[in-house]
Structure prediction request, 196 residues.
Amino acid sequence: MQELLVDFITSLDGYGTATGWPGWWGLEGPEYLKWLGEQPDYTLLMGANTYHEMYEFTAQSDLPSEEADSMDGLTKASKVVFSSTLKAPLPWANTQLISGDAVEAVRKMKQEGNKPLTTLGSISLARSLLKAGLVDRFRVIVFPVITGRTGTGRIYDDYPDVAFDMVSTRIFDGKIQLLEGVPRLLTAPPGMNDAP
Prediction:
């Protein structure tokens, strides 16, 4: 069975992006970008909004070389987009469109696929997969910035309560933190009985 990794980048206050800020809040460094380029060959899972944002971002011609290399890697990667509104064929290379139930499709991909899976953004898709018990690992990259006024895409709104059994941590470029763990849905706060 293939692994499913939920992968988020976030500000300290839990936002995925911020209006007027560049990608990675402008704080990416060489160590972080090198690590990104060394990731295994995953099939990337995303919803329509993330697809539109990332496809437009990869089409920019004025990106710094490190970001351009990262975007080129995204273009070459296998991608699956879940949407009932988009129509095939999609213009971004190596992209498959699935218009049916995402949870059932991912369950089948985990059982029958030949590569590990990871989400790319797609907050509501990741939430649905987590609630369905399909997520094996959760990885969060925390950038040292608070975007309370300009932040958009609050990541954890409407999520269930989840314990994060830590697997590893790392600091990139002396400022960006990686937190990686196994998610465990909670019915009560840790250490408390489920009984009322």
Notes: The chain has five helices and ten strands. The chain has one domain: 4-185.
